[in-house]
Design brief:
3 helices; about 110 residues; mainly alpha; about 0% strand
C-alpha cells in the first residue's frame, strides 16, 4: 500500500501597510461603537433620568433609523424586510419616548 504524501506548506509572513492596519482598526472601532450604543441603551433606559432618557431615545433612534435606511438602499429583499422591521421598532421607541407621560401637577387643597 502506498502512503499518500503529506504536503506541508510554510506560511509566509504578510507585511501589511501601517495605513491599512490603522484603517482596519478605525473601522472596527466604529463598528463596535455602532453595536455597543444600542446595547448600552437597554441598561441606560433603566437608570437615566426621564428627561435625559427621552432625549437619548429619540435622538439615537432617529440616527439609527437613518443609517439603517441608508444601508438598505440597493440591498436584497430579505435585507430590506429586516431593515423595515428594525426601523418600525425604532419608530416605536421614538413614539413611546415622545409621548412619555409627565407627572401631573400637584393639586392644591382649597
Amino acid at each position: 500500500m502506498i502512503k499518500p504524501k503529506t504536503h506541508r506548506t510554510k506560511l509566509e509572513p504578510s507585511n501589511v501597510n501601517v495605513r491599512i492596519k490603522l484603517s482596519a482598526l478605525a473601522f472596527l472601532l466604529g463598528t463596535t461603537a455602532y453595536i455597543v450604543i444600542p446595547s448600552l441603551m437597554v441598561f441606560l433606559s433603566l437608570i437615566l433620568r426621564p428627561r435625559v432618557n427621552r432625549i437619548a431615545n429619540i435622538a439615537l433612534s432617529v440616527l439609527y433609523a437613518l443609517t439603517i435606511i441608508a444601508g438598505a438602499i440597493g440591498e436584497w429583499n430579505y435585507y430590506i424586510l429586516g431593515s423595515a422591521i428594525e426601523v418600525m421598532a425604532l419608530a416605536a421607541i421614538v413614539y413611546y419616548a415622545w409621548t412619555w407621560p409627565t407627572e401631573a401637577p400637584p393639586t392644591s387643597m382649597t
